[in-house]
Amino acid sequence: MGRRVTAATMTVLTGMLIWYGAGSLHREVFAERAPNPIDRECLPGLRRLHVAYEAAWVSQREGVATPQVVALDGDLRGLRGLCAREGGASQEAFDHLERWRYRAEDQVRLWREAVGDEAGRALGNPGNSP
Fold this sequence. Notes:
By secondary structure, the chain is mainly α. It contains 5 helices and no strands. It folds into 2 domains: 1-31; 35-128.
């Protein structure tokens, strides 16, 4: 009897832990955040984020830590709802910037791991490659 109760208790506790983790992850990733107050329209906000991300990738490629990327990601998530409400070209531009953001981050990571400083300066900025 004691083993069954222990097994049932552990199963319930494990399920609750998984449920809590999934809920936290869902709230963090999919919750609609309020846009940054300076972003009144989608496209100017996306342009601002593109410039800021580009500067962050250049800094990261040069080996400088860029903690502002987390704040930029929050601003990007805040623009998701605004761009969806505007629809059409705004939504397409948001999707493009979101894909570009992750692709550029991967390129910068590979750049740091595979390319030395001398070759890096000769090749240029990986965030602008097609």
